[in-house]
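Structure ticket #2291
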Amino acid sequence: MGLPETTPLYELPRRPSRLRAALVSLRPRQWTKNLLLFAGIIFAAKLGDLSRWVEALAAFAAYCAASSASYLVNDVRDAPHDRLHPTKRLRPIAHGDLSPRQAILLAALLLAAAVLLVAPLGLASILFLCTFVGLQAAYTLSLKHVVLLDVMTIAGLFVVRAAAGAAAVEVRISPWLLLCTALLALFLALAKRRGELVLVGAEATPGRPVLEGYSLALVDQLVTVVAASTVISYCLYTFTARESKAMMITIPFVLFGVFRYLLLMHGRDLGEEPEEILLRDLPILLCIAGWAVCAAIILAVT
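Resolution: structure written out below.
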């Protein structure tokens, strides 16, 4: 007996819609990095100033747009290499779900939107955005292939975010906080390189060319130096904090967060995607929440 005509023998896998492919390519999970733009308004204890919150939100939206534009350009440029990677081959552009032409057009629209969002915030905000976009472009085109400069550029991008957030709401941000931001970003970037080295070694898959200049021994030494420097810098910030020396109470949260990340990085080799650890590991999430609550209380009452 034959099968009914209405019963398909097989079903081809459906490609995601163009809109969904575009949204995935924007990497919205990476927007958590741009939360740093709120550091200025938080540490200046201006939480009750509605107009400054509007300015901070505009800056946040602009940097999310600019970041996504850079990810699109990066994915177009790296598509041939990504197709050889066990996980990156599923990115929409590498997988063929979004064409390079569509990606570049979307990136241009996002950059235009970012400029329009920061334009009302003043010349300093425009200059910071231009610096951010220029540094992102330099990273995508060449610096990500240069040993040490690749991770230092990532750290620089975080410093620009923090400084831009303060400029958007016209408040002063402590140089110590900028240094802590740079060191913490450098720590996460090195942890990512370590995770990539582990993945390449374990699965014999091609990694990014810059990994040839690194080794596990070197990266572990660099991570140790930067982790120690991060904690020391944060301690020095709390000792000299203009906001309140009571911020010293938050030091244990920073210590635990760094220790926990090192534990996961060495014990489970979970360093390739730092944002995944920060979003999924419950102890780290509780640590961040505890630090935020404690800092908010201190800044509110002092």
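Closing remark: Residues 174-302 form one domain.
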